[in-house]
């Protein structure tokens, strides 16, 4: 029996290089060592989403990126959260034993409440309970998270301890599998790469679109003219070269510092490297996109496999709670 890993990601549509270097590559690597359950958390997305007209497209685009990047439905369970309704039932049951004070002290609740002061809905407060339900429903033991997610995992463990203490051993106490997600800075050179900040490069972009996006990247502000000496350590084009041109970074840094290379040339080289690295991915993605029924089939199969685990867990929980 391999350790089961669970991870959920909001349906954010086409993925960008930040997602790819952070979550997706890690998801792919984990498949060889763990029994992985990867979920598109569409219900979580509703907490801040009022217009759902693009939701299905976003799920499909994200799945295409995941599959083309190497997530394998034969190795991992890939499914959509709402396709396994047992999670909503478990969420309600867990809500009956989770003190409100535990939820109000979660740091991300306070941060998110500030971001959407007009829409502090129940889902925002209850988000960690739904997350706990996601994890324990599938009997996941290891949860790959960054440090910012640690309070959620600790809360899940507290909920599990309270449930098991009250109704007998039912759920596994999951542990955080602390993962260092590289912080990929966006093309604006300021914020983390993200769709809403409009500072990202989609991994499924064409080579021409990739070049066009990179040409907009902010570089070393001190390098105003071609002959100005550069400071690669403050330049996010250079930061991306570290991922995509690992054997050339020292050379690029030296050429930048001595003004032997200009920013336009440096950006063209980066686009070339990114396009070369992503060419096989883009080819696979185009082939998958040409089979519209394939994604639906993967998700249906994933939901069936996830639901088989979920039904059993929920039944055990309800029995122990005296509901059956
Ligand atoms: S030459 Fe390259 S590393 Fe140097 S500032 Fe320009 S884009 Fe950045």
Summarize the helices and strands and which ones pair or pack.
Layout: E1 4-9, H1 17-30, E2 35-40, H2 42-45, H3 55-69, E3 77-80, H4 86-95, H5 100-104, H6 107-115, H7 122-137, E4 142-145, H8 150-167, E5 175-178, H9 207-215, H10 236-244, H11 249-257, H12 263-289, H13 292-320
Helix pairs in contact: 3-12, 4-7, 4-13, 7-8, 9-12, 10-12
Iron/sulfur cluster binds near residues 232, 237, 263, 266 and 267.
Task: Briefly characterize the structure.
With 324 residues, the protein is mainly alpha-helical. The protein is built from 13 helices and 5 strands.
Mean pLDDT: 95
**Rg of Cα set:** 22 Å
**How are the strands of the biggest sheet laid out side by side?**
1-2-3
Q: Are any ligands bound, and if so which?
A: iron/sulfur cluster
Straight-line N-to-C gap: 30 Å
Find the structural class using helix and strand composition. mainly alpha
Order of helices and strands: EHEHHEHHHHEHEHHHHH
Shape summary: elongated
Largest sheet: 3 strands, parallel
Q: Care to count the β-strands? A: 5
pLDDT below 50 for ≥5 consecutive residues: which ranges? none
Number of helices: 13
Helical amount among residues, as a percent range? 40-55%
Quote the beta fraction: 5-15%
């Amino acid at each position: 029996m391999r350790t089961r890993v669970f991870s959920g990601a909001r349906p954010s549509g086409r993925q960008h290089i930040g997602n790819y270097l952070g979550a997706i590559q890690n998801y792919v690597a984990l498949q060889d060592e763990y029994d992985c359950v990867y979920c598109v958390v569409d219900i979580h997305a509703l907490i801040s989403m009022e217009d759902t007209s693009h939701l299905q497209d976003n799920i499909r685009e994200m799945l295409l990126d995941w599959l083309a990047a190497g997530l394998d439905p034969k190795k991992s369970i890939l499914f959509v959260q709402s396709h396994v309704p047992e999670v909503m039932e478990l969420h309600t049951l867990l809500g009956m034993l989770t003190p409100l004070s535990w939820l109000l002290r979660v740091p991300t609740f306070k941060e998110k409440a500030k971001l959407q002061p007009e829409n502090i809905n129940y889902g925002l407060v209850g988000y960690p309970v739904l997350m706990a339900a996601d994890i324990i429903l599938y009997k996941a033991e290891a949860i790959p998270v960054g440090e910012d997610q640690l309070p959620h995992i600790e809360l899940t463990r507290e909920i599990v301890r309270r449930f098991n203490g009250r109704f007998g051993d039912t759920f596994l106490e999951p542990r955080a599998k602390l993962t260092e997600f590289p912080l990929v800075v966006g093309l604006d050179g300021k914020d983390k790469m993200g769709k809403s900040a409009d500072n990202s490069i989609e991994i499924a972009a064409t080579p021409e679109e990739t070049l066009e996006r990179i040409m907009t990247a902010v570089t070393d502000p001190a390098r105003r003219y071609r002959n100005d000496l550069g400071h690669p350590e403050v330049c996010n084009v250079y930061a991306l070269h570290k991922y995509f041109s690992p054997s050339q970074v020292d050379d690029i840094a030296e050429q930048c510092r001595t003004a032997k290379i200009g920013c336009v040339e440096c950006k063209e080289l980066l686009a070339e490297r990114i396009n070369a690295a992503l060419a096989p991915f883009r080819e696979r993605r185009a082939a998958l996109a040409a089979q519209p029924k394939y994604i639906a089939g993967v998700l249906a199969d994933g939901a069936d496999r996830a639901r088989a685990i979920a039904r059993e867990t929920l039944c055990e929980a309800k029995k122990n709670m005296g509901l059956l």
